[in-house]
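Project standup — Tuesday

K.O.: blocked on the structure for the chain from last sprint. Re-posting the sequence here as requested.
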Amino acid sequence: MKVRILLMVGLLVASGFAIWSWARPYEWGADPAARCRVVGVEVRRDHANFWVTAHLRLLDGVEHDLMKPVRLEVKSASGTMLEPAYTTLAGDDENGTTELWFKFWMEEDDLAHPLVLHINDGTLELKKSRGMPGLGSAGVRYFVTNRW
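H.V.: unblocked you, prediction finished:
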């Protein structure tokens, strides 16, 4: 009887954590002027450098301004501003563009600093912490929060 109760409590705690992990935003208090929110960021090792791909979803009822430049700011002493190497748009005829992917080629020194995406008239914080992210033996990881 006690084992059954402990298992039920454990299942409830695990379910609560899974729901919280799934429902939390990538960045609390994201800038509405950016017109989108971050879904996740993939970091992939490519020899000595890295591909950083930001997946964004447009907010309801707004459009991405294709005429405004998109830049990734490396929050370091150099203040490097990177342009995307690749841009992918997704959507349909009814809703227009709903999702965006921006892929950046980065050096290890740049990836060790906080990263801020400048898009439309706002900013989105892709990486809040300092230091290299752990990618494991596969050399790739998908982040669903900006604390990496």
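K.O.: great, moving the ticket to review. The domain at 2-143 is CATH 2.60.40.10 (Immunoglobulin-like). The helical segments are 2-23, 108-111.
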